Amino acid sequence: MPKAYWVGMVDVKNQDEYKKYADLAGPALLKAGARILSRGGGGIKNLEGKMINRLVIAEFPSLKDAEKFYNSDEYAGALKYLNSEVCDRSLNIAEGVD
């Protein structure tokens, strides 16, 4: 079964409120079996499209595991801190090639 990659592209507008989300989401990702590959705002180089100030990439054992985490009660507890005043974001899960 191929691994899955959670890719979040985020434009944070309110760092203090976003931190409340990140403080819950990061540990929850690890608890769910994800491996965080990138979760920072430093070192992003925009080559095309809209510039963002945070990129999160996490590896899950499978697409099913990534979706299960997204729909979990634990992650819902973190999501309650996000709204359009805190950040604009795009979140996708991509299945790996092997």
Number of strands: 4
Strand order of the largest sheet: 2-3-1-4
- Tally of contiguous helical segments: 3
What profile does the largest beta sheet have? Answer: 4 strands, antiparallel
Q: Low-confidence runs (pLDDT<50, min 5 residues)?
A: none
Q: What would the average pLDDT be, to the nearest integer?
A: 94
By secondary-structure content and strand pairing, the structural class works out as alpha+beta
Can you give the helix content as a percent range? 25-40%
Order of helices and strands: EHEEHHE
N-C termini distance: 7 Å
Radius of gyration: 13 Å
- Which word captures the global form? globular
**Beta-strand percentage range:** 25-35%
What does this structure look like?
Helices cover 33% and strands 32% of the residues. With 98 residues, it is α+β, with helices and mostly antiparallel strands. It has a four-stranded antiparallel β-sheet. α1 (15-31) runs antiparallel to α3 (73-79). The longest helix has 17 residues, at 15-31. It starts with a strand and ends with a strand. The mean pLDDT is 94.
Describe the protein's topology.
Layout (H helix, E strand, L loop, with lengths): L3 E9 L2 H17 L3 E6 L13 E7 L2 H8 L2 H7 L7 E9 L3
Antiparallel strand pairs: 1-3, 1-4, 2-3
Descriptive terms for the model:
98 residues, alpha+beta, four-stranded antiparallel sheet, 3 helices, 33% helix, globular
Gist of the model:
With 98 residues, the chain is of the alpha+beta class. The chain is built from 3 helices and 4 strands.
